[in-house]
Design brief:
By secondary structure, the chain is mainly beta. Helix content is about 10%, strand content about 25%. The protein has a ten-stranded antiparallel β-sheet with strand order 4-15-2-3-13-10-11-6-5-14. Strands 8-9-12 form a three-stranded antiparallel β-sheet, with no helix packed on it. Strands 1-7 form a two-stranded antiparallel sheet. A hairpin with a 2-residue loop joins strand 8 and strand 9. InterPro entries: Cyclophilin-like_dom_sf (IPR029000), Cyclophilin-type_PPIase_dom (IPR002130), Cyclophilin_A-like (IPR044666). Its EC number is 5.2.1.8. Pfam families: Pro_isomerase (PF00160). It catalyses: [protein]-peptidylproline (omega=180) = [protein]-peptidylproline (omega=0).
């Protein structure tokens, strides 16, 4: 569910009576991408620079294990979510880091799906293209307790109200996430790191009910930009009694 630069060389030419001697200078190697030293090993992605500069998250040896609450103030109301750090500490630490650096503020959720077995709203890319990220990636924290799909041993149900990370393959988590508005069938390849409360589901349902923006090629798409613009105006994390935005 998700995501992707340029190099040139110049050759000089000397003509006529003018003679130029080139002085060779040693090539300067690009610095190695930074990686945090803690258990999450957040790693810079030079080939996929950040859509907004945020740096790498804090990566403590003793990880967060308590739940926190996050509110996405959207154009359709508040979506309140509980983050489960006991199940996905690296993901929760990263998500909080991005919120505290205002990465998600004034962004649009770029993808809505309405397949029979996949019904999600995908957000988290400030570029709005579906390929933007935070300039780093980190490991999967895959779910082990999702209900299996009968007769499909490689699939599980991501239940309505699930909050999970989008990715571009194993261990490529970044900033994009999806909110499940109806039970969806997927491989268990996407980190689940929280749930959405009932009031938040009402806002999500309003976006989903609006459908998907038609295109000249497809007047009734089942995958694409939401017909009702779904903007995250501000994201806040409740680490203390008062929200931090």
């Amino acid at each position: 569910m998700r995501n992707n630069l340029i190099r040139f060389t110049i050759t000089g030419l000397v003509a006529g009576l003018l003679s130029v001697t080139a002085i060779a200078t040693p090539a300067v190697a690009d610095p190695a991408p930074r990686t945090t030293k803690g258990p999450c090993r957040y790693a810079e992605t030079p080939d996929d620079p950040p859509a907004r500069p945020v740096g790498l998250p804090f990566d403590p040896r003793h990880q967060q294990t308590w739940n926190t609450h996050v509110v996405l103030n959207t154009s359709h109301g508040k979506i309140t979510m509980t983050l489960d750090a006991a199940k996905a500490p690296c993901t929760v630490q990263s998500f909080e880091h991005l919120i505290l650096h205002r990465f998600y503020n004034n962004t649009s959720c770029h993808r809505l799906t309405a397949y029979p077995t996949l019904k999600v709203l995908q957000c988290g890319d400030p570029s709005g293209t579906g390929s933007g990220g935070p300039g780093y990636q980190y490991k999967d924290e895959l779910p082990t307790d999702l209900p299996p799909v009968p007769d499909r041993p490689d699939r599980v149900y991501y239940p309505r109200g699930t909050l999970a990370m989008a990715n571009a393959g194993p261990n490529t988590n970044g900033s994009q996430f999806f909110l499940v508005y109806a039970d969806s069938v997927l491989r268990p390849n996407y980190t689940v790191f929280g749930t959405i409360d009932e009031a938040g589901m009402a806002a999500l349902d309003a976006i989903a009910t609006g459908g998907i923006q038609p295109t000249p090629e497809d007047p009734a798409p089942v995958d694409g930009a939401p017909a009702l613009t779904a903007d995250i105006q501000r994201a806040c994390v409740h680490l203390f009694p008062l929200p931090i935005c």
